[in-house]
Amino acid sequence: MQALGKIFCGSRYVVDKKVCDHMTDTTPPVQEDPVTALMSLFLPIHYHIGVGFEETLRCGQLSRKQVAILWLMRAEGGPEGSMRRKDIERLLASWFETSSSTITRSLAALARPPLKLVRVVGDRDSGREKRVILTAKGEQFLSHMTEEGRTFTQKLLDGMPRQEIHEMVRLMQKAVGVFEREGAASNASVLRKAKRKVVRSGAISVES
Asked: Of the ranges 59-63, 74-78, 94-98, which one carries the lowest mean pLDDT score?
């Protein structure tokens, strides 16, 4: 059925037969390999969004390592914002590929004026350990950091449907869980190998 040179397609007239064929084509579109698609997001997520978020949290006063220290204490420090110094040094040394002495200097700068955001005190559970605790000023500064981070993140989410936001958060939490399980399994494997090495060394020394 035609009218004025047009083709009737479905419930309306269209100009071109190719357009009509496209409208009635039910073949699903070719899907990009999800692994490749995810890999292509590494650069914008890590260097554009991640670095931008980190720069926001610096508030014009902190170094990247100091931001990581305070944000780590926010995530892992519990209600008191307290962590063992060696745990902070261990985690940051692996993230930044730097020495413990460099992390110690960053902590010392956080504790000294003009910042005075943390205190380093003896650990009640171990006389040899030190704990890093947020000061009252540190708690206020961390609250300010959090608000700045929320503002930055909200700009990324503006215009997104709420359902998509919740789904994105759920998927990212799931991916983080997989990564953490892989890390725990890897650490357990390293510990087992270290124990076997110690046992073998002990056996050799006994025989000799």
From this structure: 94-98
